[in-house]
Design a protein that fits this description.
This protein is α+β, with helices and mostly antiparallel strands. It has 2 domains: 31-248 and 360-400, no CATH class; 251-358 and 421-536, Glutamine Phosphoribosylpyrophosphate, subunit 1, domain 1, CATH 3.60.20. The protein contains 17 helices and 21 strands. It has helices at 35-46, 51-65, 122-133, 143-151, 157-170, 179-185, 201-213, 216-220, 222-234, 240-244, 272-282, 295-315, 326-329, 332-339, 443-456, 462-467, 487-495; strands spanning 23-25, 29-32, 75-81, 85-89, 153-154, 197-198, 249-251, 254-258, 261-265, 359-365, 370-376, 386-387, 392-393, 424-428, 431-438, 471-475, 478-482, 499-503, 512-518, 521-526, 533-536. Strands 1-20-19-15-14-9-8 form a 7-stranded antiparallel β-sheet. A 7-stranded antiparallel β-sheet has the order 7-4-3-11-10-2-21, covered by helices on one side. A hairpin with a 2-residue loop joins strand 16 and strand 17. The longest helix is centred in the middle third of the chain and has 21 residues, at 295-315. The radius of gyration is 22 Å and the shape is globular.
Length: 537
């Protein structure tokens, strides 16, 4: 209660002019966190491609123009509507030869180096999506990204800020395995500034190889061999067998009904189930009776998310290792039990129950297909390892594992880690509304929850739903609030027992995109906290 809040101005309106940014069109729509990537999607649509072509081209372009969040060495997930919903889990497994003895004396998994590196799955996502739905030649989807990589592009402001924050993490790394990474991403021993031209011929060359081989070179060719050789030379564990054996899985999305919406997420090993569990808890409250900017609305949302996270962090893992099934976590009667734990004060420490039985997000839609797609290196640039002669920065998704003995998510060989990246999708009745997503580690299910409530309970359009002030539950009773949240709400949350801090750092609150279709009109929104852009036409 004695905690001092940072000074913040009392904003009576949202900080972003959403009323002037409602983007609409009839033919199709695309949205990403970086304007050049969005244009790559439009380029495919205008060339006669469909929403899957656009989504894959944007994902490939984002590996170049937003390397602080994702890359060729990322993992990826997707949800596609083609008359029904299809889920794709392209996350990779840990190495078969991963030595568990290397973790014996550690209290946490390191964020840099080979220990957190699992098989990258993004390339397999691009290939699988294109094989099933693509219209344009696979090689054509790479052309914008190759152009940006080989000719260079001006680094956008939010990406430049993230790049500069990464200096303190990566510049001090001196072991041999980190030197290629620093040469590519910090060629002047510093991060590029906003507006500076950056490019990578190595990146472009690798994209050409992937394009021309249909992705084979990455998992079963020259690139796979280079990854395995560098691992062998610098203490890594990935082998050509690990890469060759990687498969992206088609999965059935999981769902819950909230108000008149059906909300869809990818099943575990992802954390999208947390959003669905929190919605199930909130379903029993009349959120709409409270103003959007009220302490009651904030308190109920935070408490529901807190309870959902307690279960997710205890039970969710590679689905092959989970001891509690997803359907039990999503049971409405279990949600009612959890709902009864919420009262007028903050729960001091939410415990899991016992039910019975760095990231980029993009969206694309046309008249027949709708795509929700996400890929990530996890913490910013990832592991700090870049494979020589390729420009490929490897992710550190292995940080999603735990070292806790006996936990279903305990690190082990040939296992998928708990994943933070989650694409979302909305339907109403038997018709699709469209894709949505919010990036940002543990902020992702919280961002999903908040934009859904903004639309379902407060009647906001997609752009307004993204623009609205956000909260971020950290752990325990710690909650971060954006500077645009009223100081009065912050003070009242403190009085309810929440440990509140108001921050100006908007990067903590996620970056999202939404495309919805109503009455044959696409309505697209792009995150104001990023460099992105939505286009509908």
């Amino acid at each position: 209660m004695s905690q001092k809040l940072e000074n913040t101005e009392n904003l009576t309106t949202y900080p972003y002019p959403s009323q002037r940014k409602v983007i609409m069109g009839k033919r199709g729509a695309v949205a990403t966190s970086q304007n050049l990537a969005t244009l790559a999607g439009i380029e495919m649509l205008l060339a006669g491609g469909n929403a899957v072509d656009a989504a894959v081209a944007m994902a490939i372009a984002l590996t170049v123009v937003e390397p602080t969040s994702n890359g060729i060495g990322s993992d990826a997930f997707a949800i596609v509507w083609d008359g029904k919903l299809h889920g794709l889990n392209a996350s990779g497994k840990s190495a078969k030869s991963l030595p568990l003895a290397a973790f014996t004396n550690l209290t946490e998994i390191p964020s840099n180096g080979w220990l957190p590196v699992t098989v990258p799955g993004a390339v397999s996502a691009w290939r699988n999506l294109w094989e099933r739905w693509g219209k344009l030649p696979f090689e054509q989807l790479f052309s914008p990204a190759i152009r940006y990589a080989e000719n260079g592009f001006p680094v956008s402001p939010v990406t430049a800020e993230a790049w500069q924050r990464a200096e303190r993490i990566f510049l001090p790394l001196n072991r041999p395995e980190f030197q290629h990474f620093k040469q590519v991403f910090f060629p002047k021993n510093r991060a590029p500034k906003a507006g500076e031209i950056w490019g990578s011929e190595l990146h472009g060359r690798t994209l050409r190889s992937i394009a021309n081989s249909g992705g084979e070179s990455f998992y079963n060719g020259e690139i796979a061999q280079k990854i395995a050789n560098f691992a062998a030379d610098t203490g890594g564990f990935l082998t050509t067998d690990d890469l060759r054996n990687h498969l992206a899985d088609w999965v059935e999305p999981i769902l819950t009904n909230y108000r008149d919406l059906t909300v869809w997420e990818i099943p575990p090993n992802g954390q999208g189930i947390a959003t669905l569990m929190a919605l199930n808890i909130l379903e029993g409250f009349d959120i709409a009776q409270y103003p959007r900017e009220s302490v009651e609305s904030y308190h109920l949302q935070i408490e529901a998310m807190k309870l959902a996270f307690a279960d997710v962090r205890r039970h969710v893992a590679d689905i092959r290792f989970m001891t509690v099934a997803a359907e039990h976590l999503l049971d409405k009667s279990y949600a009612a039990e959890r709902r009864n734990l919420i009262n007028d004060t903050a729960i001091p420490l939410a415990e899991p129950g016992l039910p019975k039985g760095g990231t980029v997000y993009l969206a694309a839609a046309d008249g027949e297909l709708m795509v929700s797609f996400i890929q990530s290196n996890f913490e910013g640039f990832g592991s700090g390892i870049l494979v020589p002669e390729t420009g490929i920065a490897l992710h550190n998704r292995g940080l999603g594992f735990t070292l806790e003995a006996g936990h279903p998510n305990q690190i082990a060989p040939e296992k998928r880690p708990f994943h933070t990246i989650i694409p979302g999708f909305l339907t109403k009745g038997d018709r699709p509304l469209g894709p949505f997503g919010v990036m940002g580690g543990p902020m992702q299910p919280q961002g999903h929850l908040q934009v859904i409530l903004n639309m379902a309970d407060y009647g906001m359009n997609p752009q307004a739903a993204l623009d609205a002030p956000r909260w971020f539950f950290v752990a325990g009773n710690r909650v971060l609030l954006e500077k645009s949240v009223s100081p009065k709400i912050a003070e009242l949350l403190l009085a309810k027992g929440h440990e509140v801090r108001v921050t100006k750092n908007t990067s903590l609150f996620g970056k999202g995109q939404i495309i919805l279709r109503e009455n044959d009109v696409f309505i697209a929104g792009s995150e104001p906290r990023a460099d992105g852009m939505a286009i509908a036409f």
